[in-house]
């Protein structure tokens, strides 16, 4: 495994494909499925009239292909990414043909990772990369396919296309100074800007949308999330007392009453309890806001001040289990959790109703559930 991990395609994807059958999500009255048949669904958001929009990372395709950035074999491109709308009991892919890559089984794809919709019907989505940006540069195997970007689509017509090439920004700016790697993941949309958590670049970047930013500063770094030194796990066979570096891997960004907040997956060795939610101060220094989580893939604040945290694998990604959880952290610090299988994202409406994606590394087996928590 590499030191800088993006969101995992995972050897444990086989576990997901075996266990995620598209049923059994409503083990009790707390979880009710409202949509299914999704390809690797990740983050979701709420738009006009309470419609849910879901980013589907797709299932790859026939190529071109590149060596798997996170393991053996290769991964191949296909225009199988999509944005799905769920409203009034109707499920519809409203944007299709988005870039995706995956292994032969289609599981754990990289593609559309998050989506946000404006009041005037424009949808913005982050398209992941999870590799050195050179693969998308001119002459690269994925050049011109749209990976590593922020894109806009008019749901009812209007402009569409690439808003910012975040892979190119990582290649030139490289905020954390490590080997270049970009994986645009979490997205927060404001009136004048989009904030993107780059899980590969260990950074939070701002993309200007109001037309006031010049070309030179349309993309800029807001915060950098540094490495953490950990005792080396025994299975690595290193000398006693050896340490290894763990990447932060920021996967999500949300707006709270005091500013911006970012959740981290953590990189290898994905320690149980090692993930935190950070508050990004005005000077760009991340400060721990809530800790003790494992492999965070999304965060969101509810209308009553509670923080919702999605853990992809509560026992850690090296456990072989993708039993995760959605946890509500109340303003007084009380935590309430509901177990979910391989959850990928959370959205909370103005009434406090909570929705989540599950089986987020499953091609065709992903779902959206309504969660009572």
Task: Walk me through this protein's architecture.
The chain is mainly beta. It has one domain: TolB, C-terminal domain (Neuraminidase, 6 Propeller), CATH 2.120.10. Helices cover 4% and strands 46% of the residues. The strands form 7 sheets. Strands 2, 3, 4, 5 and 6 form a 5-stranded antiparallel sheet that branches. A 4-stranded antiparallel sheet has the order 1-27-26-25, with no helix packed on it. Strands 7-8-9-10 form a 4-stranded antiparallel sheet. The longest helix is centred in the middle third of the chain and has 8 residues. It is globular. The chain starts with 12 loop residues before the first helix and ends with a strand.
In a few lines, what is going on in this structure?
This protein is mainly beta and 373 residues long. Helices cover 4% and strands 46% of the residues.
Q: What name does CATH use for the topology?
A: Neuraminidase
The radius of gyration over CA amounts to 19 Å
**What is the structural class?**
mainly beta
**Gross CATH architecture:** 6 Propeller
Residue-averaged pLDDT: 89
Largest beta-sheet characterization: 5 strands, antiparallel
Highest-level CATH class = Mainly Beta
Strand content: over 45%
- From the N-terminal CA to the C-terminal CA, the straight-line distance is 36 Å
Number of domains: 1
Helix content: under 10%
Low-confidence stretches: 1-24
Q: Report the count of strand segments.
A: 27
- Output the helix-strand order: HEEEEEEEEEEHEEEEEEEEEEEEEEEEE
Tally of individual helices: 2
């Amino acid at each position: 495994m590499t030191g800088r991990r993006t969101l995992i395609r995972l050897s444990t994807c086989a576990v997901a494909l075996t266990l995620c059958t598209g049923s059994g999500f409503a083990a009790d009255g707390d979880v009710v499925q409202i949509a299914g048949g999704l390809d690797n669904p990740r983050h979701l958001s709420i738009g006009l009239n309470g419609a849910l929009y879901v980013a589907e990372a797709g299932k790859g395709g026939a190529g071109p292909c590149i060596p798997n950035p996170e393991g053996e074999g290769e991964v191949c491109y296909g225009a199988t990414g999509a944005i799905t709308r769920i409203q009034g009991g109707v499920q519809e892919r409203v944007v299709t043909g988005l870039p995706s890559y995956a292994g032969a089984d289609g599981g754990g794809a990289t593609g559309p990772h998050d989506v946000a919709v404006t009041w005037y019907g424009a949808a913005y989505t982050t398209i992941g990369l999870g590799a050195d940006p050179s693969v998308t540069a001119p002459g690269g195997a994925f050049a011109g396919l749209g990976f590593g970007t922020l894109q806009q689509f008019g749901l009812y017509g209007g402009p569409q296309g690439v808003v910012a090439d975040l892979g190119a920004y990582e290649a030139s700016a490289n905020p954390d100074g490590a080997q270049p790697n970009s994986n645009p993941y979490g997205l927060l949309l404001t009136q004048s800007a989009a904030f993107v958590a780059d899980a590969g670049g260990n950074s939070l970047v701002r993309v200007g949308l109001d037309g006031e930013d010049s070309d030179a500063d349309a993309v800029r770094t807001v915060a950098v999330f540094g490495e953490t030194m950990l005792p080396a796990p025994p299975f690595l066979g290193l000398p006693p007392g050896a340490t290894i570096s763990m990447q932060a891997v920021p996967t999500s960004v949300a707006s709270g009453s005091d500013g911006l907040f970012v959740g981290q997956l953590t990189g290898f060795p994905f320690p149980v309890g090692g993930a935190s939610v950070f508050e990004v101060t005005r000077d760009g220094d991340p400060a721990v806001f809530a800790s003790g989580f494992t492999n965070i893939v999304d965060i969101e604040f509810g209308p009553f001040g509670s923080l919702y945290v999605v853990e992809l694998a509560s026992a850690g990604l090296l456990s072989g289990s993708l039993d995760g959880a959605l946890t509500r952290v109340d303003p007084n610090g009380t935590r309430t959790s509901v177990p979910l299988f391989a959850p990928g994202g959370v959205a909370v409406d103005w009434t406090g109703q909570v929705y989540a994606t599950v089986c987020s590394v499953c091609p065709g087996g992903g779902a959206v559930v309504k969660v009572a928590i």
